[in-house]
Design brief:
With 101 residues, the chain is mostly helical. The chain has one domain. Helices cover 56% and strands 8% of the residues. It is built from five helices and three strands. A three-stranded mixed sheet has the order 1-3-2. Helix 1 runs antiparallel to helix 2. The two termini are 26 Å apart.
Amino acid sequence: MSPALLDELGRVLHTLATRVNAQPGLAEEWVDLVALGAEWVTPAETLAARRDPGDNAVLAAAVAGRVVCIISGDQYLLLLGEFQGTPIVTPRQFVNWLDSD
């Protein structure tokens, strides 16, 4: 997790919470819980691989954290398929991969 990625998560969760009329403050509580349990990384560089700064935050944190895969529902990230050798998969694909072991 990076500060930029946490900001992006907060933005997305707030949008979703508003869309489903969730109780006020629920998105912020989720972000706080994620922040508490996250492994924090500091990206060495700011990436400009995509037009969306949120997508770039995801990619930069993934590179800094040396992740095995990026799990996302973002269609533009998913279109990449991979970034610097790291696969980008949907949550369903990730669960299927876990179940296959």
